[in-house]
Design brief:
This protein has one domain. It has ten helices and nine strands. 42% of the residues lie in helices and 16% in strands. The C terminus is likely disordered. α3 packs parallel to α5 and α9 packs parallel to α10. Strands 6-5-1-7-8-9 form a six-stranded mixed sheet. A three-stranded antiparallel sheet has the order 3-2-4. The radius of gyration is 20 Å and the shape is globular. The longest helix is centred in the C-terminal third of the chain and has 24 residues. The chain is an alpha/beta fold and 304 residues long.
């Protein structure tokens, strides 16, 4: 039996963690939003748009409205309403990845960074305004690993994951690749902020309703707290902590502005030693997005 390679060099890395929006940031999904559009004669007609178009027209309430004035109707493809084997989100994820891998379509700004995050075995969060379960989002990440990573990428990823387990958890007797990958994926966060399970989670924290953009703030805060706990546990008795940095990328300017304010007003004060960077990927003319260091001075090296 061939010995599994363990990359102990991961112990020399600093702690870099990533938070990704999904649509038009990692992948250009073919999922549609169903609207009504005002016609010249004053009537309303059904009108489907992509997520990128919706981010532009959603404020134009004089000419666009949710289909039948119903959020459920408008975002029916953004919920887990079907069995997993025909789940629209998973189907669209696979199709979107294959377009990029085949060269048919250019990758979104954070596609390569997300792939690198996985190969390096870094911790991450998916934070999206969709309404899918955490399990569905995790399944989509598994599809990304299967479809977007080469065999060499996956081998490198597994050596890095075993390296982290060896250096920080003291593990020498590793499980199968599937078991180690499962453990790694369980450490990450998957927040679809309009989903029923996120609603239940939020009910324990708040008494009032909040909009999707504000919900993303709570999801981001949860991930930062989560990784700080992991670092504290991993570094117990091991000396000085290495630099910690957290990057967030999103294609929606409204989300970007709110997250920057949230980091400045709240997270940077709670975690003054953490570097926070925001990547605005809304401008299609900027291939790798625009970086803003909101707090701290260290770069994240995201290659964006």
């Amino acid at each position: 039996m061939t010995a599994k390679f363990v990359n102990d060099d991961v112990a020399t890395r600093d702690f870099k963690y990533y938070i990704f929006d999904w649509d038009d940031n990692i992948l250009r999904m073919p999922t549609c939003i169903y609207l009504d559009k005002l016609q010249p004669d004053g009537t309303w007609a059904p009108h489907k748009v992509s997520t990128s178009v919706y981010s532009v027209v959603r404020q134009d309430t004089a000419h666009y409205r949710l289909a039948n004035n119903s959020r459920d109707d408008a975002f029916r493809e953004f919920q887990d309403s079907r069995p997993p084997d025909v789940n629209t989100f998973l189907r669209d994820t696979r199709a979107a990845i294959r377009k990029v891998v085949s060269g048919e379509e250019a990758p979104c700004p954070s596609f390569s960074t997300f792939r690198k995050t996985l190969v390096e075995g870094r911790l991450f969060a998916i934070v999206t305004a969709r309404g899918h379960s955490a399990e569905t989002l995790r399944h989509a990440v598994e599809i990304f690993i299967d479809e977007a990573l080469t065999a060499d990428d996956r081998e490198t990823m597994m050596s890095n994951l075993r390296g982290y387990r060896h250096c920080y958890d003291g593990i020498s007797d590793f499980g199968t690749d599937a078991e180690e990958l499962d453990y790694y994926l369980s450490l990450n966060r998957y927040h679809a902020v309009t989903s029923p399970d996120f609603n239940s989670w939020l009910e324990h924290k708040l008494s009032q309703k909040v909009n999707p953009e504000q919900r993303k703030q709570f999801a981001i805060g949860d991930f930062v707290e989560h990784v700080i706990r992991i670092v504290a546990r991993s570094m117990e008795g091991k000396g000085t902590w290495k630099p910690i940095s957290v990057g967030f990328s999103d294609d929606d300017p409204g989300n970007i502005a709110l997250v920057q304010k949230y980091i400045s007003d709240a997270l940077a004060k709670r975690f003054p030693d953490v570097t926070f960077c925001v990547y605005d990927t809304s401008d299609a003319s900027l291939e790798r997005g625009r970086k803003v260091t909101v707090a701290g001075q260290l770069g994240l090296g995201l290659n964006l």
